[in-house]
TrEMBL record:
GO molecular function: carbonate dehydratase activity; zinc ion binding
GO BP: any one term: carbon utilization
Name of the protein: Carbonic anhydrase
SMART domains in alphabetical order: Pro_CA (SM00947)
Binding site for Zn(2+): C52, D54, H108, C111
Organism for this UniProt entry: Seminavis robusta
Catalytic reactions of this protein: hydrogencarbonate + H(+) = CO2 + H2O
Cofactor binding: number and manner: Binds 1 zinc ion per subunit.
Recorded family membership: Belongs to the beta-class carbonic anhydrase family.
SUPFAM superfamilies noted in UniProt: beta-carbonic anhydrase, cab (SSF53056)
EC number: 4.2.1.1
């Protein structure tokens, strides 16, 4: 094993980074080499975590997960911005290549990015450009937030609303819409994936809080604006599934008459799965 703090002049000059290397040695020894033998041969995370860059919010430790289970992207105030190629590339890789089934957007109380967006000070570019995206969330919920007199309670609610809006931004993306519809059409999938979860962390208590947002209800009429796929196209795919079912059964196959083909794919296809006898859970 290498010795990093050997008392030499070089070691003294680099003692901060050497302390990290020493802690790494202890970590490896504690977890055991067998763990890394398996970790080095596969990368199959179940979750994607979009979190704040704040040093107090470490994803694996908060979730009690070992390395390898969470694919992590972090930035100031856990934002999902349509021009952020870094995050969108990671999102595409996580969903289409790694096949993650759950995406967590996690904000936290006492968030410096949220506090900065609530102030009128100009922090300078590029940070000021980034904070503008957070200010847009405040504008969307201005009436509710301005109605909260206590500044700290207003901040905490802003943190929560920002997390929810970033989840909504995920639903707007092509990769999420396409993958959720594909998995909804797949009889072997129990739910449209990936699921989107809105969490908030409290650094004062250490606990994560699930905001329990019903995004099917929350999105409401926004589906008509942001949906990228034509529902009838997916009804046609469902018809092929029904044709396949009828070819293997003597009794008449169910028809799609009565299904509202102008509705969203998930709404219309719920009836299809009911006909097929496949139970699909809520996809939010």
């Amino acid at each position: 094993m290498p010795e990093y703090n050997d008392g030499s002049e070089y070691a003294m000059k680099n003692r901060d980074i050497n302390n990290i290397l020493e802690q790494n040695k202890k970590f490896v020894e504690a977890i055991g080499q067998e763990f890394f033998d398996g970790l080095g041969s596969k990368h199959e995370p179940k979750y994607m975590w979009i979190g704040c860059a704040d040093a107090r919010v470490p994803s694996n430790e908060l979730c009690g997960e070992k390395p390898g289970s969470i694919f992590v992207v972090r930035n100031v105030a856990n934002m999902v911005v349509s021009t952020d190629v870094n995050l969108l590339s990671a999102l595409q890789f996580a969903v289409t290549t790694l096949g993650v089934k759950h995406i967590i957007v996690c904000g936290h109380y006492d968030c410096g990015g949220i506090r900065a967006a609530m102030n009128k000070a100009n922090v300078g570019a590029p940070l000021s450009l980034w904070l503008r995206n957070i200010k847009d969330v405040y504008r969307t919920h201005k009436e509710e937030l301005n109605g909260i007199e206590d500044p700290e309670k207003r901040h905490r609610r802003f943190v929560e609303l920002n997390v929810i809006e970033q989840c909504v931004n995920l639903f707007k993306t092509e990769v999420i819409q396409k993958t959720r519809i594909d998995t909804f059409l797949d009889p072997e999938c129990n739910f449209p994936a990936p699921r989107i979860h809105a969490l908030v962390y409290d650094p004062m208590t250490g606990y994560l809080q699930n905001l329990n947002v019903d995004f099917s209800e929350y999105l409401g009429d926004l589906k008509d604006i942001y949906e990228l796929y034509n529902p009838p196209d997916y009804i046609k795919e469902a018809e092929l599934l029904l044709d396949a079912k009828s070819s293997t059964e003597e009794e008449d196959a169910p028809s799609l008459e009565g299904i509202d083909k102008s509705s969203s794919p998930a709404d219309g296809l719920d009836a299809v799965w009911e006909f097929l006898g496949i139970k699909k859970t809520d996809g939010s």
